[in-house]
Amino acid sequence: MDNPKRYKIEERIGYEIRTLLVMMFIVVVQKIIVVTWVGWAVNLVLLLVVLRVLIEPITTVLRWAVYGGLLLDLTSGSRLGVHSISLITAISVVYVLLSRITSESWVLPIVAVVLGGTIYYISNGVMLLVQYGGYDVLTYIAAVALPEMLVIVIPALPVFLVLRWLRSIRRGELPLEDRKST
Question: Angle, nearest 10°, between helix axes 156-171 and 108-132?
Answer without folding.
Answer: 110
